Amino acid sequence: MFIPFNQEEELVIASDNSGAIGMKVDDEVKVPYETVAYFSFRVAAMECISAGGEPFAVTLQNFCGELAWEHLRAGIEEGLEELGLAEVEITGSTESNFSLKQSAIGVTILGKKKISKLDKQLNYSPQLEIAVIGSPLVGNEVIEKGAEVVPLSTFYEINSLENVSTLPVGSKGILFELNQLFSNLKFSETDINSNIDLMKSSGPSTCFIVVYPIEKQDEIEGIAGTLLHKVVGRRSSHA
User: Fold this and answer.
1) Which helix (H) or strand (E) element contains residue 118?
2) Residue 121 in this model has a pLDDT that exceeds 80
3) Minimal CA–CA distance to 187: which of 169, 196, 195, 199?
4) HSE-up of 216 (CA within 13 Å, CB side)?
5) What angle do CA 167, 133, 119 make, to 5 degrees?
6) Closest by alpha carbon to 12, among 56, 67, 68?
7) In angstroms, rounded to a whole number, what is the distance separating the alpha carbons of residues 154 and 107?
């Protein structure tokens, strides 16, 4: 969400939530609360940054109990440090009147960006390269295959490159997110070649899409390394 703040700047608001993941008996995925908060934070942070926002505040809604607060905060602080944003403020609230049987949190990132008349959806052309950095993972895979999760620092570095567009992948999968990027073309599953599953949930944004001109190829490969997976549109090969 974009909200005009003044004549020069606008607020960028991004959020994520997490449920049944944590340390309660009835949780579906058992992980420390630091991990829960870190991955929920990264989803909202990546969406905010990808949209051009510079995060300046984080709000945490905690339904895991009072004892979980400091652990959740520590997870968010880990993400902020990875992005070089350790000074960003964290606030929020804990549900302390009632105890839930499963863990749940919500994270909202507030960012700001310069208002630009140039902000618009991308037009697809054969001159653009598409890749996915990281792998789509969900549930216990996020822990078991941690080496395939793209680091926040890698995302931040690639997102900072000129003439490069990024979009984090969420639970609806790579193909869905890819079709949010371009205003002039919609891909179907058969239009694309890739060595990763385009339909699988990427859970807490364990990967992201990057669109870039060919001259950026070496630079992006140098940053992403083995986490880079090329996406080739069959339509583009006939253009």
Assistant:
1) none
2) no
3) 199
4) 20
5) 25
6) 56
7) 21
Burial (CB count <10 Å: 0-12, 13-18, 19+), residue 144 = exposed
- In the predicted model, what is the mean pLDDT of residues 33-46? 97
Using alpha carbons, select from 149, 160, 192, 125 the residue that is nearest to residue 52: 160
Structure-token pair, residue 31: 């992980």
> Quick one: CA torsion of 36, 40, 43, 46, rounded to 10 degrees?
-90
Which segments of the chain does DSSP mark as H helices, in order? 33-50, 69-82, 141-144, 152-159, 173-181, 217-224, 234-237
Q: Which residue has the higher pLDDT, 192 or 173?
A: 173
- CA–CA dist 200, 54 (Å, integer): 29
From the centroid of its chain, how far is CA 227?
Answer: 15
Give the position of tokens 């239009």. 191
**Tokens read off for 171:** 């639970």
pLDDT reported for residue 120: 57
